[in-house]
Design goal:
Blueprint (H helix, E strand, L loop, with lengths): L7 H18 L4 H24 L3 H24 L9 H26 L1 H28 L24 H28 L3 H29 L9
Keywords: Membrane, Transmembrane, Transmembrane helix
């Protein structure tokens, strides 16, 4: 169903439109370059999430061969090859039964480890991708850090080290809104991995990324609300 799952191409298209909006309004701003990088990152992460949906066939073949070899060894030792042809007593029988149970338990643990190997490999790949996405979130946050609505108030004294604050209230609101939209896109890119890999640890990592972006976006909207209190902001794109 098209509206029950995230479409990577739609996310990329949204990022591209946002990049054009930022570039048209703030062509000289560093935020424009960040928007370009977000589009490139969206394409890379979409490809990475899509690749994780496919099974790792070479690993599954190796696991199958190892399981078949282990089963063959057990059958060979238990049937064709016998180390004791003489009847045994109850004590020897109990010892043999205990050894068999221990062997089966160890074999079962080894089998579980082999079967979960694909899950661990995919999880490691997801974490590598999410690390880059987390860095992008902090880059976006750095670009809105000095955009303080308090500087719009009359009588604010500037110092020699004060950052440039040459944006009008309307442009400042748009700038902050673009940052918030970028953070929202990063959350959707992270969600692609939770959609591709059914793993609780991956879901928790994705939720952390989304929570980080949401918390930063909430702070941005607090700034936008402060700008709105001045009554100088007009609604525009």
């Amino acid at each position: 169903m098209p509206y029950r799952s995230l479409d990577p191409m739609q996310i990329i298209a949204t990022a591209e439109v946002l990049q054009r909006r930022v570039s048209e309004r703030f062509p000289e701003a560093g935020l424009s370059k960040v928007a370009n990088e977000l589009v490139a990152l969206a394409r890379d992460l979409a490809d990475g999430a899509k690749a994780l949906e496919a099974p790792i066939w070479w690993l599954r073949i190796i696991i199958g061969l190892v399981i078949a070899l282990g089963a063959s060894v057990f059958l060979f030792v238990g049937t064709i090859l016998s180390f004791d042809r003489t009847p045994t007593g109850a004590f020897d029988f109990v010892q043999g039964l205990e050894a068999s149970i221990n062997t089966l338990l160890l074999a079962g643990l080894g089998l579980i480890s082999l079967v979960s190997a694909e899950e661990r490999i995919k999880r490691k790949r997801v974490f590598r991708q999410l690390h880059g996405l987390r860095s992008m979130i902090h880059v976006i946050d750095m670009h809105q850090l000095t955009k303080d609505p308090a500087a719009l108030k009359a009588g604010v004294h500037r110092t020699k080290s004060s950052p440039r604050r040459d944006l009008s209230p309307g442009d400042l609101a748009r700038y902050l809104d673009y940052c918030s939209e970028m953070l929202s896109i990063t959350g959707k890119l992270a969600a692609l991995f939770a959609q591709s890999v059914n793993d609780n640890i991956v879901v928790d990592a994705v939720n952390d990324i989304e929570a980080l972006g949401t918390n930063l976006s909430r702070k941005i909207w607090q700034k936008i609300m402060l700008i709105g209190e001045t009554g100088l902001v007009t609604k525009s794109d």
